[in-house]
Amino acid sequence: MALISVFIETYGCQMNLNDTEIVKSIMTASGASVASELAMANVILLNTCSVRYNAEERILNRIDFLHHFLKKQKRNAVIGIIGCMAERLKGKLFELSDFVSIVVGPDEYRKLPEITSNALKGSKDIAVELSKTETYSDILPLRKSGFSAWLSIMRGCNNFCSYCIVPYTRGRERSRDTTSILKEIDYLVANNFKEVTLLGQNVNSYSFNDTTFPKLLETIAIRAPKMRIRFITSHPRDMSDELIETIAKYDNVCNYVHLALQSGSDRILKEMNRRYTAEHFLDLVTKLREAVPNCAISTDIIAGYPTETEEDHKDTLHLMQKIRFDSAFMFKYSPREGTKAAKINDNIPEEEKIRRLNEVINLQNNISREKNALEVGKIVEILVENPSRKNTDDWVGRTDTNKVVIFNNKNKKYQEGDFLNLKINKSTSATLFGETIEE
Ligand code: 5AD
Ligand code: SF4
Question: How far is ligand 2, taken at its centre, from the CA of residue 358, in Å?
Fold first, then answer.
């Protein structure tokens, strides 16, 4: 049997990054090795995202590129699509591309050793069953970073926001057993990890026996007192007072919350099946800021949802002005076949979607710039991450409020995973710049 050397490229969200680590763990446990370079692999897996059309288009182009790359290098390697796009398109992927031999959905990763081995013998195979119970709780992810970890506490989603493909690609919501989560936390502490991000499509609805999310967060905060604890992502509807109190109470729970707004118009929010109003969202932010004064809040916004009027769009801009998020991920609406919204006429012309999106982006950039400027002169603690891409003398770190800070580390005095105090001396809309403080 050919020895398997697998290379995995990851697209999409943090859940996918953690899933890739889970897949690497499953593959190595079966005797495969993980290739550090594409050119060394005989199995190439793309862990994919379906959330917008562009994400999928990119993958189809990538498959073509990989096929030509392999041909030019005269290499025999098989290409597999795993993750959300595999689940959404299933066997159609074999029709869309002759070069795909493996299609495996998010709940079937345990089958990958067998499927990849068959693919190397020339067969095409697919596994896309969704599970009501799979959480990979017994699998220790094979992590790249030695100081910052992703940790999935639940999988799937039951919210069925009208525009979103995730409930169809990742199946029903299920929470991972608390004991296995705490065991993994203990492992991270013992191995000197400095940061953990608890992951789930909607972490607020974590529930295992009697353990709710605030309780789980509190238990972890006490158990790993020196580790920064983050979590994503929270649904504004189920963000409880208890959760806000827990963030306020524990210093090591980061002062950062991602709360997706999507729209500032009550009519559109209703159409989207978000089950909250603009007023509820604003109240939540007020409560959060009262309890955790330094709390940074980021959000997601969709521009040009079907039937969105100029007035609805203005409502979004006004609410953004009122709330003043620290940062935002902003998207043009993209119809996803099979969702409820895809049945409504996608009636906003492309140029109009682009104009609205640009207005949203420009407004947020101004707000982010103004908010970041308020950091200048402050001393902040960062967790050092890595050299910056542009200049390796400059290193990147992150504050507990999730802001990126660049500082000079020419003499390599600081290593990834170090905590370090910096004085902020400059800022842009996306980045802070800091200098080390003379001791
Ligand atoms: N079109 C555009 N953006 C979308 N998102 C989810 N589905 C769509 C879609 N069909 C955005 C939402 C979500 C983020 C992960 O992606 O804002 O919060
Ligand atoms: Fe993540 Fe959603 Fe993309 Fe799937 S579709 S990878 S869950 S963002």
Answer: 24
